Amino acid sequence: MSEYRTEEDTLGPVKIPAEALWGPQTERSRNNFPTGQYMPLAIIRALLNIKKAAAQANMETKAISEEKGNLIVKAIDELLALSDEDLRKDFPLKVYQTGSGTQTNMNTNEVVAHKAHEINPDIEILPNDDVNKGQSSNDTFPTAMNVVALEALDKLKPAVQHLIDELKIKEEKYMKTVKVGRTHLQDAVPLTFGQELSGYIASLEHDLDYIKTLEPTLDELAIGGTAVGTGLNAAEGMPEKIAEKLSEVYGLNLTADSNKFYGLANHSGLDVVHGALKTLAADMFKLAQDIRFLASGPRAGYGELNIPANEPGSSIMPGKVNPTQAEAVTMAALRVFGNDTVVTMASSQGNFEMNVYKPVLIDAFLESADLLTGTITGFADKMIHGMTVNEKRMEELVDNSLMTVTALSPHIGYHDSAKIAQAADKAGSTLKEAALKSGKLTEEQYDEWMDMLKMTNVDRDK
C-alpha cells in the first residue's frame, strides 16, 4: 500500500498520508504552519458538535437530504466517541494559522467527510458542500469559541467554590485565634486568623459572582452569520435550531438571537469574562502570597502557619519544606495576567467585518481557565486542607507587638499611648512594663483594657 494518496483542492494536487482522514486543505496548513501548540481539542469537539447540529438543522429545513444528513451525523458521533489521544491523530493543526480558524474548520469538514466515506462509500459527502453547508469558518469558529469558554467556566466555578468551602472550615476553627495584624508590612492592631480568612473568602465569593454575572454574554452565538454577518447561504431557521441543539448537548442556554456583525467582528464577551479571570488570578495571587509568607520559617520567618509537607523542598538542604502549591498559584496567576493582554489585544483586532485573531484569543482564554482550575484545586486540597496554626508563635508575636497600645488610647489618650510604645521600643521592654512605668494606669486597668480577643470584636461567648 502506498505511503501517500493524492487529492486535489482549488490550488491543485496535494500528497496526503494514506491513513489520514484529513484532506488537502489540512495538509497544506500542516506544512505551512508547523509552529506552536496544537489547536485545543475542546475546539475540535465543539466544531464537531456544531457540524452535527448543522446537519440536523439542514435536514429539518430540507436543505440537505436525510440520507446525507444522517451519514454526517453518524460519522461525527463516531469521531466524538474517540478518546482525546485517538481524536488528535486526525486534527494535527496548530493555533498559529489563519486568524479566522479556517484551516481548523476545514480540517473538521474534511475529517467528517472522509469518516462518512469509510462508513458508506456509496454516498458522496463533500467537505464544503455538505459538512459545511450553510456555514462559514467565520461563524462556526466564533460559535465554538463561546461554547468552549462556557464549558471551561463550568469546570472553574466548582474549583473556586471548593476552595471557599475549605477556607470556611479554617475560618470557623480559628475565629478566636488572635494574631498580629499587619498594614504596610508593619505591625498593626490584632485580629483573629478566622477574620483574616474571612477576607480571602469574601474576595473569592466576589470573584465567583463576577464570573457568573458576566458569563451569560457568551450565550450569544455567531452561528448563522456565515461570511460577513448577512447570513448568506444559511437556511431560514437553521441558526436557531443549531443553538437549540448545542444547548441540549452542553447543558447551556445558548441563543442565535444576536447581531451577527458583532459576533464575527467582536469578541468583547470573551474579553470581559477573561477580565473576571484576571481578577480571580489577582486575588489568588494575594491569598497564596499571604499564606506562604505566614508559613515562612519554620524558625527564622513569620512561622504563624504550618503547611503540609507534600514533597522534599530542596536537593541540597535536608528536611526543607517549601510552599509549592502557593508558588504554583502565583506562577499561574502571572500567566493569566499575560493572557489577559493577549485576549484584549486580540479582541481589538476586528477590522471591518472580521476579527482575525480568533485562535490565539481562545487558546489564551482556555489556558487561563485551565490553569486557574488546576492550581486552585491543588491549593485547596494540598495546602489549605492540611494547613494548621502555630498558636504559640501567634501569641508570642501578639505579646511582643507594640501596636496593641492602641487599646489604651481611648483611656489615656493618643499621645500618652504613643509615648508608652516608644518607651517600650527604646528600652526593649514589654508594653506592659513601659505602661506601668509611665504611671498613667494600674496593672489592673492594663489587664482589663488589653483584652486581645475583645480588641478584635469577636464575641468570646459565641
TrEMBL record:
Task: Name its cellular compartments.
Answer: Cytoplasm
Q: List, in alphabetical order, the GO biological process terms annotated in this UniProt record.
A: fumarate metabolic process; malate metabolic process; tricarboxylic acid cycle
- EC number(s) on record? 4.2.1.2
Enzyme active site = H184, S314
**CDD domains recorded:** Fumarase_classII
Q: In which pathway does it act?
A: Carbohydrate metabolism; tricarboxylic acid cycle; (S)-malate from fumarate: step 1/1
The cellular component terms of Gene Ontology attached to this UniProt record, alphabetical and capped at eight, are:
cytoplasm
What PROSITE patterns is this protein classified in? FUMARATE_LYASES (PS00163)
UniProt-listed InterPro entries: Fum_hydII (IPR005677), Fumarase/histidase_N (IPR024083), Fumarase_C_C (IPR018951), Fumarate_lyase_CS (IPR020557), Fumarate_lyase_fam (IPR000362), Fumarate_lyase_N (IPR022761), L-Aspartase-like (IPR008948)
**A GO term, aspect molecular function:** fumarate hydratase activity
Q: Where is this site: Important for catalytic activity?
A: E327
The Fumarate lyase N-terminal domain sits at 13-338
* Residues of the Fumarase C C-terminal domain: 405-457
The residues listed in the UniProt record as binding substrate, with positions renumbered to this chain, are: S100, G101, T102, S136, S137, N138, T183, S315, K320, V321, N322
Catalysed reaction(s) here are: (S)-malate = fumarate + H2O; L-aspartate = fumarate + NH4(+)
Swiss-Prot/TrEMBL keywords? Cytoplasm, Lyase, Tricarboxylic acid cycle
Provide the assembly information. Homotetramer.
What biological function has been recorded for the protein in this entry?
Involved in the TCA cycle. Catalyzes the stereospecific interconversion of fumarate to L-malate.
PANTHER family registered for this protein in UniProt: ASPARTATEAMMONIA/ARGININOSUCCINATE/ADENYLOSUCCINATE LYASE, FUMARATE HYDRATASE, MITOCHONDRIAL
Instruction: Please share what else the UniProt entry notes about this protein.
Output: There are 2 substrate-binding sites: the catalytic A site, and the non-catalytic B site that may play a role in the transfer of substrate or product between the active site and the solvent. Alternatively, the B site may bind allosteric effectors.
As for family, the record states: Belongs to the class-II fumarase/aspartase family. Fumarase subfamily.
Q: What is this protein called?
A: Fumarate hydratase class II
